[in-house]
Amino acid sequence: MISLEQQFLEVLNQIETVYGAYKLKTSVIWNISNQRPFPIELWKHPKLELKVTNVPLEAVGDIEITPDAIHILFVHVSLAEWNSISKKIETNFDTHPFISLILVASEDGSEVILEQTKTTTKTVVLENPLHNRELRLIFDRAIQAEFYKKAALDIGASCLENVGFFDGVFQLAHQEYEDSKNENEALRSILKYKEMVKKTNIDITTALEKVNALKNQELIELHERVRASETLDELRERELKEARELQKATEQVLSYSRTEEMNMEKLIKAHDKLLDYSESEIRALLKENKELKARLGIS
């Protein structure tokens, strides 16, 4: 069975055959942090080259954003570090037309940063702790969505360019019709071009509908994957808790058994010692005990 990714790539390849290759070739992830490494390994995208550029906090204002790539900012900072660069982030990138997404991760300040960025348009604050699998899905879907959007814009621009081309062809054919005696041949050429335009527009509309359907289905699958991952994590935590409780109970049982064993050993020793006394020795001990009580005034 062909996957959704393969179906979409087939659609894009068909569109490229008609309108040529896309201008968009690169996706840049700007890793803004104080010497923290990017937490996940890059993966291979069928249409884009993925790059990670590490940026120290003091160089945030020097980032150059170009229109020929997809740009995502990954800001991994403490709360104090965020406070030192938040104004630059908001001023330079939140409304920038070529910035697709700003992801913020902070071990000690996620709630505060979330409150501060409620009014921003592109900033998403990640919950702690970070899970590499979910983080990769977020990056992958953000890049895919931006690629789909820009591909659709390229298709629209190509359609407009082709409309102008065919308009020129129609004008030329009309002039030839006026100047030439072969009126029927010119008319057939015009009708042929018109049918080509109509067929191409139908193909493009069908392709765009497939793109939208695939995108919606991928979003549904993403929600299901995240929900399944959360359920799996909860089950693992529950199993770990039950294992710890079982271990504790086992240790308590072993401790109690050991105490009983020690007490039983004492009783056996006392019993064995008692059996070692002869009858005369027992009477002597009783008499000695009675005399001792008398001297002490104990009845």
Descriptive account of the structure:
Strand 4, helix 3 and strand 5 form a beta-alpha-beta unit. 66% of the residues lie in helices and 11% in strands. The protein is α/β, with parallel strands linked by helices and 299 residues long. Helix 1 (4-19) runs antiparallel to helix 5 and helix 4 (132-179) runs antiparallel to helix 5 (183-276). The relative contact order is 0.08. The protein is built from six helices and five strands, in the order H-E-E-E-H-E-H-E-H-H-H. Strands 2-1-3-4-5 form a five-stranded parallel beta sheet. The model has no long low-confidence stretch (mean pLDDT 78). It has helices at 4-19, 79-93, 110-116, 132-179, 183-276, 279-296; strands at 26-33, 49-55, 69-76, 99-105, 123-125.
End-to-end gap: 99 Å
Helix-strand sequence: HEEEHEHEHHH
Helix content percent band: 55-70%
Oligomer: single chain
Strand % is 5-15%
* Sheet/helix structural class: alpha/beta
Stretches with pLDDT under 50, minimum 5 residues = none
List keywords for this structure.
299 residues, 6 helices
Summarize the structure.
With 299 residues, the protein is α/β, with parallel strands linked by helices.
Ordered list of secondary-structure elements with their pairings:
Elements: H1 4-19, E1 26-33, E2 49-55, E3 69-76, H2 79-93, E4 99-105, H3 110-116, E5 123-125, H4 132-179, H5 183-276, H6 279-296
Parallel strand pairs: 1-2, 1-3, 3-4, 4-5
Helix pairs in contact: 1-5, 4-5
